[in-house]
Design a protein that fits this description.
Number of domains: 2
Largest sheet: 7 strands, mixed
CATH class of the largest domain: Alpha Beta
Shape: globular
Structural class: alpha+beta
Bound molecules: adenosine-5'-triphosphate
Distance between the termini: 24 Å
CATH topology of the largest domain: BirA Bifunctional Protein, domain 2
């Protein structure tokens, strides 16, 4: 960067500090989660649902930067799971399904959490019994609790004009069943041979007793699920392959290895039909918690749907004509949980010229904005025109923004806070030498690049 630019950045950095203190006090003593929640709201990542009415517990809205981030997470998952593999196809099933689906899957009878209430009249605690501390109320420590009772987590609604038991349907509590009920359709239309998978991303709903930890546990969320069908004797090998692939996916998107681990489920945690389950866990500020589970589910699901629907859901081997129910490996992740983990992992603070710099170090593939084009002097028509022209060219290939609403140091910091990978600054000199200054978010290093090489340069760095 030229010396004028550096001097301005130093000045703006200084001014910014006082601004930060006035407008955006950082709770330096509060924990990381508080900072993430505050940043998410202040910078347009995540807002409370229907906040103007006091909010709705367990539901969140993604703001302008949040929606880009979450779309990038889903896009990265779809590419890795569907487009970059020859053995997986996609699906987008309806949220509303025939109620028999949930009888077959076992959700109507068993998809419940055990809950209890504290009988202490001064304490209104109600929650899952796995939250009890040594059998005592986690809020007041009291021992007088109601008997545990099952609470079904499926959200009910009714279809059509009549509201009676025959019109009851559920908002799906998982996307997986939409895949199983389409198993035969996919085989028939796509002529797939084992092993192959069907993947989908979509909304799921659970009436969680205690939603919390920001977007970690919500009542409406998105899942990214694959059902991978294989011969029974391949199941163990495929299970292990998927565990590795799913763990690697987070690493490939820049998640810190020390913040990720695998947790193998104990036998007593497994469903009666499952041969194994391994969770990918993330080291959230509130503790290690599940990002996704990879389950070796045997042939339970297809068998159940065959039984309840009366349809033949067996696979017929095209060579031997042998018929059997394939076994299923199910990597099942939460899009909102992954997005939250990427937010936490990207959060970075450092001191620059005695001032705090908050920077979201998202992987370039996940960053909501790839490039910000910034005119150094917004009153100079030549500079503004060139900056706008550069932006309109770049936006054909990457998500970019133009911003001239503050001086350069402040603009840089704003972009750092939302994780914009590059800032391109147009200055007086640019009008003469047709070069611009490109500043990289993580190192703040700057380079002069000819405008005609800019697109190629950025594409290479962002790939
Ligand atoms: P948990 O034990 O945390 O309730 P789970 O084991 O019931 O999760 P699954 O049924 O295996 O979760 O769902 C697969 C994935 O869907 C989870 O790994 C998680 O990422 C996501 N998910 C499940 N429930 C929620 C929720 N209430 N809010 C956000 N994401 C969720």
């Amino acid at each position: 960067m030229n010396s004028l630019g550096s001097a301005l950045e130093a000045l703006e950095t200084f001014l910014l500090f006082s601004d930060l203190l006035v407008e955006y006090p950082f709770p330096m003593t509060a924990d990381l989660m508080d900072k993430i929640v505050a940043l998410a709201k202040r910078r347009g990542f995540i807002f409370q649902s229907s906040e103007i009415y006091g909010g709705l517990n367990g539901a969140w809205d993604y703001g302008p930067f949040g929606v880009e981030l979450k779309r990038n997470v889903k896009e990265a998952w779809w590419k890795a799971t569907v487009h970059f593999r020859d053995d997986v196809v996609g699906l987008d099933a309806a949220i509303l399904m025939h109620p028999r689906t949930w009888e077959a899957s076992g959700h109507t009878a068993n998809f419940a959490d055990m809950m209890a209430d504290c009988k202490n009249t001064n304490c209104s605690w109600r929650g899952r019994i796995d939250q009890l501390k040594n059998g005592k109320c986690p809020k007041c420590g009291g021992k007088d609790l109601t008997q545990p009772r099952a609470f079904n987590l499926m959200l009910k609604t009714s279809l059509g004009a009549m509201e009676d038991s025959s019109s009851v349907v559920y908002l799906r509590p998982e996307t997986a069943q939409g895949i199983f009920v389409n198993f035969a359709n996919v085989i028939d239309s796509m002529h797939r041979k084992l092993p192959f998978g069907i993947a989908q991303i979509g909304k799921s709903f659970r009436n969680e007793i205690t939603p919390g930890n920001f977007t970690f546990r919500t009542r409406e969320f998105e899942q990214m699920e694959t059902e991978y069908f294989c011969r029974p004797e391949q199941a163990l090998e495929k299970y292990e392959e998927w565990i590795k692939a799913r763990f690697q996916w987070y690493l490939d998107l820049g998640m810190k290895k020390e913040n990720l681990k695998l947790r193998v489920h104990d036998k007593d945690e497994l469903a009666h039909y499952a041969a194994g389950c391994t969770d990918v866990e993330y080291n959230f500020p509130f503790g290690w918690s599940e990002l996704e589970g990879i389950a070796n589910r045997g042939d339970y699901d297809l068998k159940q749907h065959a039984k309840f629907s009366g349809k033949d859901l067996q696979y017929q081997d095209p060579v031997t004509n042998e018929k059997f129910f394939p076994h299923v490996i199910e990597p099942s992740g939460g899009c909102d949980r992954a997005t939250l983990a990427f937010l936490v992992d990207a959060y970075h603070e450092e001191t620059v010229n005695d001032t705090l710099r908050v920077v979201m170090k998202f992987h370039p593939k996940l960053a909501p904005i790839k490039v910000a084009v910034l005119p150094l002097l917004k009153k100079n028509e030549g500079i503004v025109a060139l900056a706008k022209k550069i932006k309109s060219e770049l936006q054909k290939d990457m998500v970019c923004v133009y911003d001239d609403t503050a001086a350069i140091g402040k603009l840089y910091r704003r972009q750092d806070e939302v994780g914009t990978v590059f800032c391109v600054t147009v200055d007086v000199q640019s009008l003469e030498d047709k070069q611009v200054t490109v500043r990289f978010r993580d190192t703040m290093q700057q380079e002069r690049i000819p405008v005609e090489r800019l697109l190629g340069y950025l594409k290479e760095k962002l790939s």
